[in-house]
Amino acid sequence: MRVIESLNLEEAKKIIAAAEKKAIEIGQPMNIAVVDAGGNLIAHERMDGAWIGSIDISIKKAFTSRAFDISTKELGENSQPGKQFYGIHLSNQEKIMIFAGGLPIKKNGQVVGAIGVSGGSGDQDQEVAEYGARSL
C-alpha cells in the first residue's frame, strides 16, 4: 500500500507567510491559497487591499496545479488555440485556471499540495507563488 503524503495546516501557514513576505517586498497585495494532496483547500489569506475577485482565482489556481501536477503558467502556455490542452479551462466545472500563479508543491519528489496566488500581474503572481513554494 502506497502512503500519500500531504501538506498539513502548519506547512500551509509557513508557505503563506513566505509568499506574503514576497508580496510585501514587491508592494503588491495578494490572495494566497494552499491546497493539500487531494486538491482541498487548507488555508487562504487575503492581504489587506488585495482584490476580492482574486480570492476565487487563487483557490482555483492552487486546485488546478494539484489536479494536473503542473504550473498554471505552463498549462496556460499549452492551452492556447492549436496546442494540446486547448479548451481545458472548461473542464472540472470550469475550475481550471490557465494563467501564471499556481504551482504544485513537492516533498521528497512527490506532489503533496499546491499554492495559488492572485492579485498582481502574471509575473508577480508567479514570483510570489515560487517564493512560497520554495519555503517548504
From TrEMBL:
SUPFAM superfamilies: GlcG-like (SSF143744)
Leader sequence residues: none
Gene3D superfamilies: Haem-degrading domain
Alphabetized InterPro entries for the sequence: GlcG_carb_metab_protein, PduO/GlcC-like, PduO/GlcC-like_sf
The organism's place on the tree of life at top rank: Bacteria
A Pfam family hit: HbpS-like
Protein's UniProt name: Heme-binding protein
